[in-house]
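My main concern about presentation is that the manuscript never shows what a single data entry looks like. In essence, backbone conformation is discretised, so a fold becomes a row of integers matching the chain in length. An entry of this sort, consisting of the sequence and the corresponding backbone structure tokens, reads as follows:
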Amino acid sequence: MKVIIAGYPKTGTKSLTSALRTLGYTVYDYLENFQFLCNDWEKVLTEGGNSEDFYRMYNGVDATLDSPVFVFWEELHRTFPDAKVILPIRDEDKWIVSLKKQCKQIDDHVLMKFYKFFTPTGRKYQAFTQTWVTAALGTPLKTAFHKTPVNELLYRTRYRQHNKYVTEVNHLLYYSKRAQKSNKFRWSMPTNCWCIKSRTVGNHCVNSCR
């Protein structure tokens, strides 16, 4: 494991995935965490886990991010202490708007509702989502045909608390998402830095952890 992304969903994780894959990294984003590690994450989220579990899950993977990784970023870093930790930072108001927009898109997607209700993989996907949302955000989901609950006060509070805690940890990498339609990113620029270069998201320089 080389890179652990500690940020919430909707903070530029898909652009980070694209940049890291352009660099040749093996990346486990949300779909890979579901497809390859669903049963492992169900156990961790419901019963707990340890470094042996995380090592088995991510040995050979270069980078991981999104849900439910951001909840357990610190445990992952204890398992892979040489990995760099990146915290994506996005303006809170823009973040909550983006999150609510995604929830509405999910609610309005009729075919997705039937997929998650009537197919084995869809039901497994819904159960996986229910488990991590309940653990991370505190708002349990019901069936695919129920409206996605959005407790804005709770979500904002969790978002602030998470970012505050992560930024207090030493050896941290972070970037801020610009409020621009270009969807590019502004990285912090210390003395020591390394750069991600990608046609998709441009050139980005990142603090060195070491």
